[in-house]
Amino acid sequence: MPPQARSISSYFKPTGVVAATSSSTTTAAGAGAGAGLTTPEKKKGILSEAAKRAIEEGLSAAKQDEEEPEPSKKKQRIDSSPSTSKVADIFTKPNLTASPTNKLPIVRSKTREDLRARIAEKPDWINKLSLEIDTMGEDWLLALQDELTKSYFLNLKEFITNEQKTKKVFPPAEDIYSWSRLCPLKDIRVVIIGQDPYHDDGQAHGLAFSVRKGVRVPPSLRNMYKEMHDEIPGFVIPKHGDLTEWAKHGVLLLNTSLTVRAHEAGSHANKGWDTFTAAVLKVVTSRLSPGPSIASAVGEKVPGGNGVVFMAWGAHAAKMCAGVDNKKHLILKSAHPSPLSASRGFLGNNHFKKANEWLQLKYGPQGGIDWEALGDNGKPTT
């Protein structure tokens, strides 16, 4: 078994900018930026141009968090190991890992090619980040662009690149970010959190719990199919374990670690992936989630801001979700679907049904996931 996730809930604590309401933007922004000003500037309450730009960009991404309640005064228990402390610091102080000379300028790129050109200005960066630039879904790439140039991620990529040169690493490089191509950020309605990619030959292809067609369906996935069959009338259990259709229907299947050394479970844990995938979850919770269009009769979707469903199975996934605002999002927790624990709370949890009931309440009758269509009776998405 791979090592359990350490708590990273502090990543979701609101910052000074995020917590500001629209009516008090100026006051909150001034307080947050004042620490970086000279003494005369603090007295005058004048913001630097860089601070103004940072605040303006931060407010647009954080608009959905403006009414987030203040963090609990009760101190959260966080693993005291050096690795955990580093992760917690990264999430409470997002720029801690990026020195002033080791991050992109404050102006953000608006296209893949624009970002490619800017990163290419630093040869060391483009060598390490070419995979992300070439294979990550564009909306994810642009949303996570600042994360890619932080020190921890550049170090992680150096480690992964060296591993790929000397050892067999799963999934294949071109599939590491398949979750981002198959499930655009704007379409996410459900998030299912896994741990490690499968570490045997031919299994992993970038989606948590999923294996390629022709590969034996793993035990955990068989239990997921069983639970869905019991909950969803008309769902026909597939004879394969490829969950690509789930991703295309708005289900983000995200592992905490995105790579693993062949036949060595947990071998790439604690190398930095947990920090990156926590940033992925933060992007999901901070941005608009989709809602069915009430103005279109052809299934077109319009942005909505009513939250997403997190399915957190097992202690590892529960820790990954710690700190997510459960007033904006639905967090469904239970035992893991593994045969070792499925009978202790996973089977019979009704999570797929509960997810749809919540989504339909938030987004209307067509707001749920068409779970039935994801079985062998469903038609593949083109």
Low-confidence stretches: 1-45, 57-101, 291-302
Question: Structural class per helix/strand content?
Answer: alpha/beta
Largest sheet: 4 strands, parallel
Helix content: 25-40%
Number of strands: 8
Domain Uracil-DNA glycosylase-like: 181-359
Active site: 196
Family: Belongs to the uracil-DNA glycosylase (UDG) superfamily. UNG family.
Region (Disordered): 22-96
Question: How is this structure best summarized?
Answer:
With 382 residues, this protein is of the alpha/beta class.
Structure notes:
By secondary structure, this protein is of the alpha/beta class. Helix content is 39%, strand content 8%. The chain has 16 helices and 8 strands. It has helices spanning 16-19, 25-33, 39-44, 49-62, 82-92, 112-120, 123-135, 138-143, 145-148, 151-166, 178-182, 219-231, 244-248, 273-286, 315-321, 351-363, and strands at residues 169-170, 190-194, 251-255, 260-261, 289-292, 301-304, 309-313, 330-334. The strands form 3 sheets. A 4-stranded parallel sheet has the order 3-2-7-8, sandwiched between helices. Strands 1-4 form a two-stranded antiparallel ribbon. A two-stranded antiparallel sheet has the order 5-6. Strand 7, helix 15 and strand 8 form a beta-alpha-beta unit. Helix 6 runs antiparallel to helix 7. It is globular and about 55 Å long. Residues 22-96 are annotated as: Disordered. Its EC number is 3.2.2.27. The active site is at 196 (proton acceptor).
